[in-house]
Amino acid sequence: MMTRRLTQLFIGLALYGFSLAMFIRAALGLDPWDVFHQGLAGKVGWSIGTVVVVVSFLVLLLWIPLRQRPGIGTLSNAVLVGVFADVGLFLIPEFSHLGGQIALLVGAVLLNGIATACYIGARLGPGPRDGLMTGLARRTGWSVRLSRTGIEVVVLAVGWLLGGSIGVGTVVYALAIGPLVQLLLPKFMVPELPSMALDAVDNEEQVPAQAA
Predict the structure, then answer these.
(1) Terminal alpha carbon distance of the chain
(2) 27: alpha, beta or left? (left if phi > 0; alpha if psi -120 to 50)
(3) Which of 70, 74, 129, 152 makes a 20 to 30 Å CA pair with 9?
(4) Could you give the residue ranges of the DSSP H alpha helices within the chain?
(5) What is the pLDDT of residues 22-59, one digit of tens each?
(6) How many CB atoms sit inside 10 A of residue 138's CB?
(7) Could you tell me the CA-to-CA distances from 3 to 43, 141, 195, 210 in Å, in that order?
(8) Rounded to an integer, what distance in angstroms lies between the CA atom of residue 58 and that of residue 49?
(9) For the chain, which residues make up each domain, given as ranges?
(10) Cβ(29)–Cβ(153) under 8 Å?
């Protein structure tokens, strides 16, 4: 059972990284966190994958006052999404015509939905950003949706000011990814491990309100 969980987790994280690369190559706008990652990468001169990894571990520091505990999926997410985003950017060419950009955007949304359902369904711990949102909700009494919305508005605004890309892809992601993950998640959900082996938030908290 653990072999299946780990396999599903790693496949999901790899696909998530590739979906991020597809969003970037589509050049039609990114989700809030990746607007921030892209803007920061442009300012510091790092690859976006490197920025994703560094920001992931900085976000994990914010888990400490929230009394969140990472799982193996959390730490794997922090490293592998950024690694595979850079691999994807190396392999996927840029598109100069709108038709190709739209096709790539649609593919990115679908792949991101599958990837998110995979890694959440493995039940090995939330991603760093998901855990920040759910941890904040638990400590403040706010709803998960309110916590997520507040954080993502902030990172979106900061990312835009740093030069990150906002566009139709941002809107499509916001509208489509939550329902898509909700639809796919039952197909990837594995039986829950004993509580001593896993400190994961429940499914409703992990599934992105716009998306995780």
Answers:
(1) 25
(2) left
(3) 152
(4) 2-26, 32-44, 48-66, 72-91, 98-121, 128-140, 144-162, 168-188, 203-206
(5) 999 999 999 999 999 999 999 999 999 999 999 999 99
(6) 16
(7) 40, 36, 18, 30
(8) 14
(9) 2-206
(10) no
